[in-house]
């Protein structure tokens, strides 16, 4: 083992573990030792975790470019994650152009948002929770970016999902954030099943879920590769809020502004696209899946662009503007323009992050810039009635909310019954226990 | 605002219950206009005709809000000594009068019972917690098992305490929720919010709502008629809408029809409709507000509350029917209203605990408790129920105000008792006229501490010049004056002749740049534009964001420096003066600038108000104020209230311009005020967030006065640093040992930080308003809590000046204090909650997250250190003068007699104090006290972050007052 490989190994581990360690430090302090945490302690710990992660990412980049010895790339083995007799899940990380780009990009943006939030969330009751979740999210993105096989990728993917749901429900003392959080969570659960099944199928078909092994997909029967590719696409569609799963995205604006910026302007919303870039060899061989991706991407893009035009709130408009570009990038991937898609993704995230963080400045800006004169569009001049219908459909967002509701209503109905039973039992118990005292 | 003040009461006699409900709703709904201009006002303005406690309780009940702090918060104040037991007992005695001494239990008077209920948690409603504490053996009864056993046994025999049913279930939805069904408002509100935000949008969306020019009901029904799909929960509403559209049904007819479709008839109509109007108060209130103030909705259609409620009821009708049908309940209100579930039974341990607490304080032993008759116990319970939670909080509120009032009045009396210097005839070195704002108290003190020759004044920050002002870069004129005044003049900022060429170039560049910026903002949200700009601007924008977040202050300054290097701002003048009436009047508009007579009037009036009629310093600075912050939808709430939520710099500049003209001075001299030739007025703007001071028109400063100005400038440079330091002590993220220079950097960073939810604390510390001569308060450290209004009763013969001042200051001060009061006592209902999830909507307000009610009032970050109290208005005038003024000024009279402010008269000659309470002035005898003395203010305030009691600052006191033994050192 040469020096550069060793350095890269350590750097890779640090990139993922540093944020995780910071989360554990805070978590233990709060949960095990029941100590109150000062804002200073929390930010110091999480910031250092994130900075170490950035530094480690930079080291990996240096190793990849060959600045510290022989260039390092490809799978880096860390032994087994799980071993049951012959069945083993490898802990393997992957160093290549895409993984390094995404890992560095995500860690820099997360650190930026952490710095922003230190001031923004000052004195907020959920301060510690926010930063703990941020650390968890950073761990998740590093895992997703650097994973060398689908199993580790899935672990990171779930960390992103769970922290996203918690951020949406950050203000859990109100109903609406909790409702929205449940929606996002339910959508994730549904579409993540796609990733899980696809992982298992890949493992079955190729004998390994390593990304480096996906090249073998070209030898698979078309049915099988198409099924796997479609499942991956399903998963990406949920995470990246593509039609028909777009309903949760505007509702995700319930969280504090910096978390909206990080998740739905910059990183999390692009995670689905990243998944597709990672499993590109499988997608590559399935024309059906690629066509689907183009269709879904373009229709989402058109839908979102139409919604942006009618949106009157700053964050909701940005969410849909982001969604439109994400749809476009998905279509680009479907077309096979992966390099363009990667560049588009990164540039777009940088653009949106700034816009999200400045969203509360809307009124200030409009005073400075002056009034924009609205001109009737081509459609409004041609057919006011059709324009009105388009407007209504955009304002109501195609009633996608109702779609999720319909999906969820049996589950929620059961939950409500259980809740009622629970309340009754608790009341009975508390009266009894009170009476005997 | 005043025209609608009694909207609720004036029309209340109308026969039709629908009109009655609508009129009442107009009064109760939040009266906050689009947020771009934030005016502080009494949140419960519609209840101002009632006495304070009745008003807040009625208003809070109507909105489902808390009228006072909670008992828990009050008891916390009790625990830290902010309120004393004795204050509470005093207020109980005052509230109960003679009834306080009647016995309700052997050994327990009613007053003692109330004190027990108010001060302790004798009537806890937390059965689970009590049961836990009893089991754990840490509750008080565990130490007196015999008495406790007796209480448990006695309670078990009955009678039991039956609390009032305070639930309010006036609508189907409330009943459904009470019965454990799903909330129909979720779907109805979601739909309404989307429709209303499109309809009321003032330019945020790229496309405006179709048919909006036809009014809300027509627009919505026509859009459904065009084929819009209904929400799942309101299925069928599209047919209803189509019918409404086809029949062109007027909104009131729709309301009536929907009411009967829901089975709401007779007496139920008014409460039902009012509750319906108050169910989504922010948006409904915006409709009501824009109906009354169409000028605030410039290019939109007529807006009306009726139309909004008609649409609401159409949606609600379907949602309710669906929900009732699926729950197997009747949707007819006359049937549904009787199905309220019974109140859950009160746990016996609560009664026992109450009895135990009362018996302990009455010193009843176990036998006596067991011997209580049923009648005695029932009486006791009745007394307990009569002393409601609200009544106790009312008493606490009075006590909370009383304890602070005592401290302040005693301090003011002690300061007043100090000897003043005999006039030396020495000329003052600098005079500074600030807004009355309590945020300027600290900078005034910082100036006065530097030299006895620095004199400060306070007057309403528009300095008597009510103008429609248009600055060089503004797009339209804006009124710079109190909201109750409509300006009769316009003033424009214009480049001087020699800078015209440069100005034109700058204008061109600027217009083009802003055009690009506007286009980029829109394009980045479109499909192709977003893609293109991502590649073009994405990386750049990322770098910019990084810089703005990592180094907010320097990155902003670098940017500004770059811009001013590239296109320097030209020298400008204001068109403050007009030569004759025929010229320069914009066609059909207002005259631009003031004529000679008008100028003389204004200068004379302001100088008289201030009592600044002799002893003029060489330099007199008039400082307006404003506030700069980023990413802050509530920025305007930090600007000058006397300038209608805008910055007072232009007003100060106009005033100085007028007062410097020789012909104006000549006119003023003829009215008896002689301004010497070697006095110069300078207009300036104090930024209360970044603590910067910007001076205007220094080019015109006479060269002979340069050194005098430089001295004054130096004094202000020191003062603004001290001010920054004093403000910083309130911010938890600024260290207490900041130097003045570091503090200035700190507040500059706050003002330029994108992530800063607290650029400044605004009026958060307001509590007092002192109207009188500054000599009587100079050197008294008031901790930025006092509005300071200059008024000299010696030059006011017929109380005309006092009337002018109180008419302006009373409503403005009370408005600010009451807005802060309500936003603090119930930040979620009266205020707008935490800023962090706020989402700017339609340029008219903020929502929480993706769709919520429009949030009105002040955010939590603006009120978090506020102590909710009514303004303590201390006036240097006799009670008779104040009564005279009140008889001439109805609004002032209302505020005082209904006790929305606490008025204290300090007799100008004798210094005797009298407090207006319970309908008349009652004498207040201050306790003689020794105030702590410090050399300079920072010695006093840089010790802690908490509110501070008054202290004397030796360096700002008259020389004869600083002898030893007068007061003790801190």
What are the key terms here?
heterodimer; A: 437 residues; mainly alpha; two-stranded antiparallel sheet; 5% strand; B: 970 residues; alpha/beta; five-stranded mixed sheet
Architecture overview:
In chain A, 74% of the residues lie in helices and 5% in strands. By secondary structure, chain A is mainly alpha-helical. Chain A has a two-stranded antiparallel ribbon. The longest helix of chain A is centred in the C-terminal third of the chain and has 36 residues, at 400-435. The relative contact order of chain A is 0.08. The model of chain A is unreliable at 433-437 (pLDDT under 50). Chain B is α/β, with parallel strands linked by helices. Chain B is 45% helix and 10% strand. Chain B is built from 35 helices and 23 strands. In chain B, the strands form 6 sheets. A 6-stranded mixed sheet of chain B has the order 14-12-18-19-20-21, with helices on both faces. In chain B, α24 (527-550) packs across α25 and α33 (879-888) packs across α34 (890-897). Chain B starts with 6 loop residues before the first helix and ends in a 17-residue tail after the last strand. The chains are: A mainly alpha (437), B alpha/beta (970). Chains A and B meet through α3, α6, α12, α13 and α14 of A and α7, α10, α11, α23 and α24 of B.
């Amino acid at each position: 083992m040469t020096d550069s490989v060793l350095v890269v190994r350590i750097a890779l581990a640090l990139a993922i573990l540093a944020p995780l360690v910071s989360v554990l430090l805070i978590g233990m302090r709060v949960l095990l030792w029941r100590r109150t945490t000062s804002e200073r302690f929390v930010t110091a710990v999480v910031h250092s975790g994130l900075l170490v992660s950035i530094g480690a990412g930079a080291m990996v980049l240096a190793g990849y470019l060959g600045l510290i010895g022989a260039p390092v790339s490809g799978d880096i083995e860390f032994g087994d994650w799980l071993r049951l007799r012959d069945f083993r899940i490898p802990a393997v990380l992957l160093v290549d152009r895409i993984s390094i780009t995404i890992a560095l990009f995500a860690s820099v943006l997360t650190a930026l948002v952490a710095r922003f939030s230190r001031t923004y969330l000052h004195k907020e009751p959920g301060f510690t929770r926010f930063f703990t979740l941020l650390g968890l999210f950073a761990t998740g993105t590093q895992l997703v970016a650097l994973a060398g096989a689908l199993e580790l990728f899935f672990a990171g993917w779930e960390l992103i999902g769970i922290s996203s749901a918690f951020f949406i429900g950050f203000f859990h003392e109100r109903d609406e954030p909790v409702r929205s959080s449940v929606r996002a969570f339910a959508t994730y659960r549904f579409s993540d099943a796609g990733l899980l099944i696809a992982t298992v199928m890949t493992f079955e078909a190729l004998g390994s879920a390593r990304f480096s092994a996906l090249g073998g997909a070209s030898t698979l029967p078309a049915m099988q590769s198409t099924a796997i590719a479609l499942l991956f696409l399903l998963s990406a569609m949920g995470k990246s809020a593509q039609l028909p799963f777009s309903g949760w995205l505007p509702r995700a604006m319930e969280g504090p502004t910096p978390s909206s910026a990080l998740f739905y302007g910059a990183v999390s919303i692009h995670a689905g696209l990243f998944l597709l870039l990672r499993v590109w060899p499988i997608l590559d061989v399935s024309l059906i899946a690629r066509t689907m991706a183009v269709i879904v991407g373009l229709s989402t893009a058109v839908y979102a662009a139409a919604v942006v035009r009618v949106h009157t709130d700053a964050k909701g408009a940005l969410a849909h503007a982001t969604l439109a570009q994400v749809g476009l990038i998905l279509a680009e991937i479907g077309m096979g323009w992966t390099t363009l898609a990667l560049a588009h993704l990164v540039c777009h995230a940088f653009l949106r992050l700034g816009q999200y963080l400045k969203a509360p400045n809307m009124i200030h800006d409009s005073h400075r810039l002056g009034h924009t004169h609205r001109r009737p569009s081509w459609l409004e001049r041609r057919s006011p009635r059709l324009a009105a219908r388009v407007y209504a459909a955009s304002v109501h967002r195609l009633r996608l909310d109702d779609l999720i509701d319909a999906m969820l209503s049996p589950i929620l109905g059961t939950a409500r019954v259980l809740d009622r039973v629970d309340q009754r039992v608790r009341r009975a118990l508390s009266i009894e226990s009170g009476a005997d005292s | 605002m005043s025209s609608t003040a009694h909207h609720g009461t004036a029309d209340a006699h109308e026969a039709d219950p629908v009109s009655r409900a609508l009129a009442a709703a107009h009064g109760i709904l939040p009266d906050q206009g689009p947020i771009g201009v934030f005016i502080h006002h009494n949140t419960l303005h519609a209840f101002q005709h009632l006495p304070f406690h009745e008003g807040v309780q009625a208003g809070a009940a109507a909105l489902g809000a808390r009228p006072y702090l909670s008992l828990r918060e009050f008891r916390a104040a009790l625990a830290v000594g902010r309120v004393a037991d004795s204050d509470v007992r005093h207020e109980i005695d005052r509230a109960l009068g003679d009834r306080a001494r009647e016995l309700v239990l052997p050994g327990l008077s009613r007053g003692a019972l109330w004190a027990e209920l108010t001060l302790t948690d004798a009537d806890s409603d937390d059965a689970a917690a009590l049961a836990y504490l009893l089991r754990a053996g840490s509750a008080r009864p565990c130490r007196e098992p015999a008495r406790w056993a007796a209480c448990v046994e006695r309670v078990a025999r009955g009678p039991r305490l039956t609390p009032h049913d305070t639930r309010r279930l006036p609508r189907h939805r409330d009943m459904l929720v009470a019965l454990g069904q799903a909330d129909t408002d979720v779907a109805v509100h979601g739909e309404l919010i989307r429709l209303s935000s499109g309809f009321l949008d003032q330019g945020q969306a790229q496309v405006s709502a179709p048919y909006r020019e036809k009014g809300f009901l027509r627009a919505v029904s026509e859009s459904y008629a065009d084929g819009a799909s209904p929400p799942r929960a309101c299925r069928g509403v599209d047919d209803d809408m189509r019918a409404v559209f086809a029949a062109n049904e007027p909104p009131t007819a729709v309301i009536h029809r929907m009411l009967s479709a829901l089975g709401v008839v007779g007496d139920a109509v008014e409460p039902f409709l009012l509750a319906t109007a108050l169910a989504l108060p922010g948006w409904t209130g915006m409709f009501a507000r824009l109906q009354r103030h169409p000028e605030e909705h410039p290019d939109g259609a007529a807006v009306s509350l009726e139309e909004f409620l008609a649409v609401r009821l159409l949606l609600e009708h379907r949602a309710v029917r669906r929900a009732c049908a699926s729950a197997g309940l009747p949707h007819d209100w006359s049937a549904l209203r009787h199905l309220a579930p019974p109140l859950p039974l009160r746990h016996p341990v609560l009664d026992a605990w109450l009895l135990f607490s009362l018996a302990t304080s009455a010193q009843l032993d176990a036998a006596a408790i067991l011997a209580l008759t049923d009648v005695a116990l029932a009486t006791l319970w009745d007394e307990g129920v009569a002393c409601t939670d609200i009544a106790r909080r009312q008493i606490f509120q009075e006590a909370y105000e009383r304890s602070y009032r005592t401290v302040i009045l005693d301090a003011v009396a002690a300061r007043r008792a100090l000897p003043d210097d005999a006039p030396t005839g020495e000329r003052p070195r600098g005079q500074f006229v600030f807004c009355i704002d309590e945020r300027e108290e600290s900078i005034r003190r910082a100036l006065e501490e530097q030299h006895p020759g620095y004199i400060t004044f306070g007057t309403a920050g528009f300095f008597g010049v009510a103008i429609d002002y248009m600055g060089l870069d503004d797009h339209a004129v804006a009124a710079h004056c109190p909201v109750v005044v409509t300006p009769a003049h316009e003033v424009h900022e214009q480049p001087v002749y020699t800078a015209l060429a440069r100005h034109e170039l700058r204008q061109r560049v600027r217009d083009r740049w802003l055009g690009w910026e506007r286009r980029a903002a829109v394009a980045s949200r479109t499909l192709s534009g977003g893609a293109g700009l991502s590649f073009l601007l994405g990386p750049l924008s990322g770098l910019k964001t990084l810089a703005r977040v990592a180094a907010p202050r320097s990155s902003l300054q670098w940017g500004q420096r770059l811009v001013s290097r590239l296109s320097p701002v030209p020298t400008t003048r204001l068109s403050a003066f007009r030569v004759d009436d025929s010229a320069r009047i914009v066609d059909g508009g207002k005259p631009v600038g003031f004529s000679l007579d008008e100028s003389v009037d204004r200068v004379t009036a302001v100088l008289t108000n201030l009592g600044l009629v002799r002893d003029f310093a060489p330099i007199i600075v008039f400082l307006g104020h404003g506030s700069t912050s980023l990413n802050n939808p509530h920025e305007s709430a930090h600007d000058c209230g006397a300038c209608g939520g805008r910055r007072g710099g232009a007003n100060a500049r106009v005033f100085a311009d007028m007062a410097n003209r020789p012909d104006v001075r000549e006119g003023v001299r003829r009215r008896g005020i002689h301004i010497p030739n070697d006095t110069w007025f300078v207009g300036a703007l104090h930024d209360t967030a970044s603590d910067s001071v910007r001076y205007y028109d220094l080019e015109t400063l006479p060269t002979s006065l340069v050194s005098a100005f430089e001295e004054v400038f130096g004094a202000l440079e020191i003062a603004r640093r001290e001010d920054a330091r004093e403000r910083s002590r309130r911010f938890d993220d600024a260290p207490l040992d900041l130097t003045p220079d570091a503090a200035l950097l700190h507040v500059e960073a706050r003002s330029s930080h994108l992530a800063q939810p607290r650029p400044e604390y605004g009026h958060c510390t307001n509590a007092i308003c002192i109207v009188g001569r500054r000599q009587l308060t100079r050197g008294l450290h008031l901790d930025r809590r006092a509005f300071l209004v200059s008024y000299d009763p010696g030059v006011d013969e017929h109380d005309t000046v006092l009337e002018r001042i109180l008419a302006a200051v009373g409503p403005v001060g009370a408005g600010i204090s009451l807005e802060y009061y309500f936003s603090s006592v119930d930040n979620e209902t009266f205020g707008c909650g935490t800023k962090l999830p706020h989402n700017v909507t339609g340029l008219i307000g903020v929502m929480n997250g993706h769709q919520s009610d429009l949030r009105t009032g002040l955010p939590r970050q603006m009120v978090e250190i506020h102590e909710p109290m009514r303004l303590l208005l201390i006036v240097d005038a006799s009670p008779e003068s104040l009564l005279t003024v009140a008889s001439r000024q109805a609004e002032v009279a209302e505020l005082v007699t209904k006790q929305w402010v606490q008025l204290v008269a300090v007799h100008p000659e004798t210094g005797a104090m009298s407090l207006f309470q319970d309908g008349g002035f009652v004498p207040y005898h201050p306790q003689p006290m020794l105030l702590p003395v410090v050399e300079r203010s920072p010695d006093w305030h840089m010790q802690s972050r908490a509110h501070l009691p008054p202290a004397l600052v030796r360096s700002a006191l008259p020389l004869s007052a600083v002898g030893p033994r007068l007061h003790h050192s801190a």
